Amino acid sequence: MFLSAIVKHAQxxxxxxxxxxxxxxDRQAYASIYxxxxxxxxxxxxxxxxxxxxxxDSIQEIFTLFWIHRQKLEMVKELRSYxxxxxxxxxxxxxxxxxxxxxxxxxxxxxxxxxLDISAEQQRINAEEVFAQxxxxxxxxxxxxxxxxEAVFLRFYENMPYEAIADMLQISVKATYKLIARAIxxxxxxxxxxxxxxxxxxxxxxxxxxxxxxxxxxx
Length: 219
Description:
Layout: H1 2-10, H2 16-23, H3 27-45, H4 52-68, H5 79-97, H6 120-124, H7 127-143, H8 146-157, H9 162-169, H10 173-190, H11 197-208, H12 211-218
Helix pairs in contact: 2-3, 3-4, 4-5, 5-9, 7-10, 7-11, 8-10, 9-10, 11-12
């Protein structure tokens, strides 16, 4: 079940024809992009705040601007990165205005929180068999800094390249590699209890919907 969910998520993609049609003013193409990315942005936004209205307002605003300025986006190389960067910047701006995170131009680990938890669904499945591992993983996640959590989420859940993550977090690509490597090392250290490989991969894949992350942590 988990692997099918992962594959389904990975298949969400906008082809170049749809992208070009949107820029040309095709509302159906625009709707396809909106439908594909709304739930992903919504999920991402709720890791910054539980305030649904702020998340929804941010999504609506960036999609409105996206449609208005669609013809000026010829230089956009990767649609997903563009939408995520635009959404993140606008949401953080709203959070600052509502004093839900610290104000300032530098958004670092002291300025905001990023929630990264084992899903409630996974906690209900095979509870007795994987409880110990889930508990370890949960503790490990809480030890990560907000920036580490966000980088892990973007890399292993959204499958973003390191270059795109670096742009989003406004750090170098080298620093991004180090950030994710340290997060994985921290999680590996926390998950010390020996468990079978099958249980390890099942629980870790369900953690973020990412078999890639499971393989990284099981090495």
